[in-house]
Each structure stands twice: as C-alpha cells, then as structure tokens.
Write a structure and sequence with these properties.
The structure holds two protein chains of two kinds. By secondary structure, chain A is α+β, with helices and mostly antiparallel strands. Chain A contains 14 helices and ten strands. Chain A is globular. Helices cover about 25% and strands about 30% of the residues of chain B. Chain B has four helices and seven strands. Classes of the chains: A alpha+beta, B alpha/beta. At the A-B interface, helix 1, strand 6, strand 7, strand 8 and helix 12 of A face strand 3, strand 4 and helix 3 of B.
Chain lengths: ~400, ~150
C-alpha cells in the first residue's frame, strides 16, 4: 500500500522570472517521482508581434525578450538579418559585440551565483556577490549608457565605440572581478553548507543531457562539450581564444563550477579582445528592405544556446521570426533532475539551470489522502527547505 | 566526400533535396511521411541528436515545418524541411527518436495546430486552458486585433 501520495502544483507567478512556470510534482513521501511542467503564463506573443514590425523595430523588441541576457538576443537577431542582407559588420564592431556579450555573461553568472547562495540560505555570500556584480553593470553603463537593456547592437554594426578611457576602467574592473571570482570559487569548493546542498544533488546523467537536448552550463555540468561559441563561432569568436568549461560530476556543484570558471574565461576573453581590437568603423549603412530568404542564427547566451530563425519575403517586415530561448530547452532536463530529489532540494535544483526562475512565488500543496490544500509562498518553501536541512545536519542522505 | 554527398547518401531511397546555405548551415527537404525516417537516419549516421527547435510557418496553403538538428559530426546545423496541408496538418512525432523534442512539438501544436501522431502528451503547453479550440495564434489569418480582443476584451 502506498503511504501518503502527494501532488504539488508549484508556481506559476514570479515577479523576477522571464518565463513563469508551474510544475505539478508527484511525490512519494519526501521524494519527487515525477514533474510535469506547464508554461506560457507570460507568453507575450513576441513572435507574432515581430511579424507586424519592421526589422529595425524588431531589434528593440528582441532586446526586451530577456532583461538579463539582452545582449544575446539582439546579437542573435541582428546576425540573422545581416546574413539575409549579405553584409558583414566591420571587424571592430564584431569585437565590441563580443566584449559586451561576455560582460553580459559575467553579470548574468554573478547574478545567478548570488541567487544560488540565497536559495541555500547563505545570504552573506549573496550580498557580496551582488555588490561585485555592480562593477560589471558600471562598465556596461560606461560603454552603452544603459545598465540592463544595452541597445548596443544595430543591423550592420554597433552603436557605441570603446575608447581608451573606458578600456582602462574596464581592465581595472576585470582584474578586481577575477580576484573576487577566484575567492568565490574557493568558498564554493570548501564551504560545508554549499557542499551539503550541491554535491550529488540534482543529478543529470550525461546520456540524459544529450537525449533531452539540454544546453549551456546545464549540459556542460554533465560532461557534454557543447558550446555554440566553439561549435558555431560568431562575432569575433574565431579570433579570440578560450576554453570550453566542462565538469562531469553531473550535479548542482558541477553546474555551479562551470559558471564560475566561465566568468574567469570571459574575463580573459575580454582582456584579449581589448588588446587585439582592430581599428576602423563600427557600423555600415544598410538598406531598409531585406531581400527574400531565410537564416538561422545561434549564439551561446549565458543560459545556453539561443536560436533565431528569421525569414523575409523581401520587404521591410519579416515573414516569420522564431525564437528559442535556452530555458525552454532545459525544462525537460530539469524535470529529469527533479525525479528522485527531495522536496527540500527543489529550489536549489530549479535554480541550478538558471531559468530566471530562482525561487517559486507560490506553491499550493495538496495532500490527496487527507483532502487538504494549503498554499506556501516562495518564502515559506524556502524556509521549509532550510529547516529540513538544519534538522538533518550530519545525516548522510541517500 | 562533401557533407552534402554524405547526407544524400544517408537519405538514399527518400525523395529529398539538399543544399548548403552557408558555412555550417544545411537545408534538406523531405516529404512529410518520410520525415521520421529522415530524422532517424540523420540521428544514427551523423549524430544529429540535438534538436535545436522546431519552427512552424503558415505559408497560406501549407504549414511548413523546419526541424533544426545540430550534427557535431558534419559540424552543421541541418534544417530538415517538410510541409503538411494547412486544413489537416498532421505528422509523426519524433519524440520516440529524440526525447528532447517533446516541448517543441507541443509548442507547434499550440501555435499552429499541427497534430503530432504518437506524441506521449500533446496537452496545451503555452495557451491558457480556456483558449478557443481551433484558434492557433501563429496562423497568418489570425490578426493581432483579434487576439487583443480575445485577451483584453477590447
């Protein structure tokens, strides 16, 4: 006889979330045996809307799909349109794109690392990391004038140049960040709290990561060497050397270390790009009418592979714009990770794919056997999770 | 042997057209009843087991489906193109070949009304539960004003 069977719908609302999501968890006692996602709570119809706007307007629309990886969206869309137009942006523009893109990755990964610390109840670390993240935003603001939606990319190039003054400031900020990131890496590796919450939690086997088409740090934490920057280079990536970071322990810890090492890689890439930046124009003039054709553009956004498919019928407006964000690609893998996990590990595992879904707004818990329904806020679920761990301190799980 | 010849050889027996759009971008066209078989052969022979996404486009008479597959072996994004009739769009699901395609097929089902045969769970993914049964927002005859009226009531 099954003891108590629980079904837990989780979500969907969340203020800080790009794609609010709802899960229905099937529980056997404390253990999740199945997770079924439901999406679309903030489906904004961007793909439909893009068909009614011009290509130039769509650059701004694309930027607003995600506030955290806005540079990724515009780069990806602009590249697709440039391919249709048959033009190449000037070499200097490609370097500037790469620099902004990697700065974007650094701030995104730092933001995520802070949220992970918060989910684990390590608020001091969370605040330190977010303080340091401000330095990256300062650099981005200096280059582009904006802290969140950079509006740096345009069809045919970029809008702002990087002069010596900005470059000097950037180098100082980067060397500070390198020291800080190394320090955080030491904390993550050694701290017993983080180890208890991250090691052997949220396992995603390598074969599952491949079969479920996971992307980004999620798949690289499972030992899969899959990085668009290496496989399908864009911007100035064919000229800037870097390493693809792969860890193979398949757990939350692996995904954390992948991101931390990627911050260090990105810092080196930006420094190299600053040293080797060609001089010249930063944009070319482009016609408003885009010839008929189709193009698929891919970039490695902070969360993984981002894809745009753009088709033009030969006009000022696109015939079709298809966007596939990395979070959607990682949802099947996330459901797999949650199978066999404890309820108390849900926040950390969900956070580990970096879905802009670091914590759940509201959870309704249904006890089927007792016909009881109760609602937990995200704060209460987090508190439950932390209490659960405190009460089991020193107990070897599994 | 160039990658195009290699793909042609793999797809032998299936009527197909293959072209290279640019470096690392290959487009293949196959009939809809042979799509499953084409994906299976590409998966088994050129490691094209990463479904990037599935794009659906309403072209007026037909619905065009583009299966974007990344193949590390030929270092190319292979886009397999097929068309299904707009009034009764249905095609065999590839979820049994590549489990990662499940959400993409559900998305196309929601947005364009394509029926994926053999899909384990073709429930609504993105549209709300009370959305009209036969209204597929990405079809070209659905106007933005109509959607606005439905969602906001004005």
């Amino acid at each position: 006889m099954k003891l108590s069977l629980f079904e837990i719908p989780l979500g969907p609302q969340h203020p800080a979330l790009k794609e609010p999501i709802r899960f229905i968890f099937k529980l056997d006692g404390e253990i999740v045996v199945g997770a079924e996602p439901r999406l679309g709570y903030v489906h904004r119809g961007v793909e439909k809307l893009a068909e009614t706007r011009t290509f130039i307007q769509d650059v701004y629309l694309a930027e607003r799909i995600c506030g955290i990886c806005s540079a990724a969206h515009t780069t990806c869309f602009v590249q697709a349109v440039e391919e249709l137009l048959g033009i190449e942006p000037p070499p200097r523009a490609k370097y500037i794109r790469l620099i902004v893109f990697e700065l974007n990755r650094i701030q995104s990964h730092l933001l995520w690392l802070g949220i992970l610390a918060y989910e684990m109840g390590f608020d001091t670390l969370f605040m330190y990391i977010w303080r340091d993240r401000e330095r990256v935003l300062d650099v981005l603001e200096m280059i582009t004038g904006n802290r969140v939606l950079y509006a740096i990319n345009q069809i045919g190039g970029v809008r702002h140049d990087i002069d010596d003054k900005i470059a000097a400031y950037m180098r100082k900020a980067l060397s500070y960040l390198r020291e800080r990131t190394k320090y955080y890496k030491g904390i993550v590796e050694r701290d017993p709290t983080i180890n208890a919450r991250a090691v052997e939690v949220g396992i995603l086997k390598k074969r599952d990561a491949i079969a479920l088409c996971a992307v980004g740090p999620t798949t690289r934490g499972s030992g899969v060497k899959f990085d668009i920057r290496a496989d399908d280079p864009y911007a100035a990536l064919d000229e800037v050397p870097f390493n693809v970071v792969v860890y193979d322990t398949e757990d939350v810890m692996a995904r954390t270390l992948v991101r931390i090492d990627e911050i260090l890689e990105s810092i080196s890439m930006i420094e190299y790009a600053l040293d080797h930046m060609p001089s010249g124009d930063i944009r070319v003039r482009v016609p408003r009418v885009v010839p008929a054709g189709e193009a698929v553009s891919r970039v490695e956004a902070p969360r993984g592979e981002l894809v745009y498919y753009v088709r033009s019928a030969g006009g000022e407006k696109p015939e079709r714009v298809k966007v596939r964000t990395p979070t959607l690609a990682n949802i099947p893998a996330l459901c797999k990770m949650l199978e066999g996990a404890y309820v108390a590990d849900i926040p950390v595992i969900v956070a580990s794919i970096d879905p802009c879904l670091a914590c759940m707004d509201r959870a309704i818990f249904v006890d089927v056997s007792k016909e009881k329904v109760w609602v937990w806020s995200e704060r209460e679920l987090r508190r439950y999770s932390l209490r659960w761990y405190r009460s089991r301190e020193g107990v070897r799980r599994r | 042997m160039s990658e195009l010849d290699e793909i042609s050889k793999i797809l032998e027996g299936i009527p197909h057209e293959v072209k290279k759009a640019r470096e690392r971008r290959i487009f293949v066209q196959v009939p809809s009843d042979k799509l499953w078989e084409a994906v299976r052969r590409l998966r088994d022979n050129v490691e094209a087991q990463h479904v990037v996404t599935i794009t659906g486009i309403d072209t007026g008479e037909n619905i065009e489906l583009l299966y974007h597959l990344w193949s590390p072996k030929v270092k190319s994004l292979i886009t397999v193109r097929t068309t299904v009739p707009r009034d009764s769009p249905s095609i065999r699901s590839i979820v049994d070949l590549i489990p990662g395609a499940t959400l993409y097929e559900r998305e196309v089902h929601d947005m364009l009304g394509v029926n994926f045969i053999n899909h384990p769970n073709l429930a609504r993914l993105l549209l709300p539960e009370d959305w009209p049964e036969n209204l597929h927002p990405l079809r070209k005859d659905v106007k933005l004003e109509e959607l606005r009226k439905l969602i906001f009531g004005r």
